[in-house]
Amino acid sequence: xxxxxxxxxxxxxxxxxxxxxxxxxxxxxxxxxPEAGAELEGVIEDxxxxxxxxxxxxxxxxxxxxxxxxxxxxxxxxxxxxxFARAELVSILKAMPDRVxxxxxxxxxxxxxxxxxxxxxxxxxxxxxxxxDIFERIGGVDGNLVETVLPCPSPYNYRNRIMVRTQWNxxxxxxxxxxxxxxxxxVVPVDxxxxxxxxxxxxxxxxxxNPSRRNGIKYVLRKFPEGWTLPRDSFxxxxxxxxxxxxxxxxxxLRDFAGRFLVDAYCxxxxxxxxxxxxxxxxxxxxxxxxxxxxxxxNAADRQISNGHFVEGATETxxxxxxxxxxxxxxxxxxxxxxxxxxxxxxxxxKRVGPGxxxxxxxxxxxxxxxxxxxxADGQYRVHSVKPMDMFPQTQHVECLADLRLAH
Length: 408
Ligand SMILES: C[S@@+](CC[C@H](N)C(=O)[O-])C[C@H]1O[C@@H](n2cnc3c(N)ncnc32)[C@H](O)[C@@H]1O
Hints:
This protein is an alpha/beta fold and 408 residues long. It has helices at 120-137, 198-209, 243-257, 271-276, 290-302, 315-324, 344-353, 365-376; strands spanning 39-43, 46-47, 53-57, 60-64, 72-80, 84-94, 161-169, 174-180, 187-189, 218-222, 261-265, 282-287, 308-312, 331-335, 357-362, 381-389, 399-406.
């Protein structure tokens, strides 16, 4: 018997097409490919990075949300593109043993989480495989160098920052406050976010009791880290529970290389530089957000840390000045850029100077793997290890630490 899902009441993709919008369908020249609305069955062969299961039908890839590798499912085609199709899950004919009940009643509708239907252990194994695949495919890295995923001690109620928005719901004649729906610009009203810290849900309840009357208002709800000065709009890692594990992973890599000097690029409020200051003779941090740099100076002073300094500016502009005073081969450069990755000019500069170790932390494995490939091109750097860390349980996201060393 097929197991009934709470995912099957939605058809997230169809809502994206305006009425009358031309659909790229089989009748438009795709031979015998399935049409939108057609139902078919098959076994999920993989869950791709991003959270969707892969089903193959007549050499066509069909993406299906809310499934687990190995599950036998019935799906309904929602949208046919040139090289792939998207489908909604109709029923699960044979579930995998690691399927669990999602904690959130909005799972499948809200776009925030992708994996609440999988046991946490199985999420970790899957993310390891996804990171491995990405680093092999984009980074040209030996997949055996990708380690197991560091688990989060709190797989729910861990996020210390969320953003909700308002949207007028004409049918219900009320202001919805919540997250964007799966693959849609519509807002799903949210009473409680199960991956957010409880304090944020209290803030959310307050907003919902008296929401702005204006459409499209975004509210950032935040819990601030204890013991750190953090300006309202500056970045901080969004999961306090895994922070010690994350710092430990970076520290172990630094120790293993025995770097004497440290450059913390994209340093925010000085997090890595301050946590690692005791490991090195001298450090320097660079960050583009002026308020964050002032906070980094205060965070260091509050801890009587005086073996380094912070400068405001773009990494790509300031790196030459920061690296000038450190002997490159004895220097570790921590890179923790935004999702888009590192500016090509900064990669080029680092390759020219050649720091002995590059510790690249990122929440976007694809851009990270791309940059790693550039560092390793021509054999200048080699990947020592890639450590995935589950800073974002229940979601498609994963943080990774790539440890690169000069090859010669
Ligand atoms: C992922 S956060 C990392 C922050 C910090 N390492 C931490 O752990 O809290 C990326 C940071 O890079 C900063 N940033 C963005 N573009 C930059 C650039 N071109 N140069 C320097 N910093 C930049 C952002 O302001 C943000 O603080």
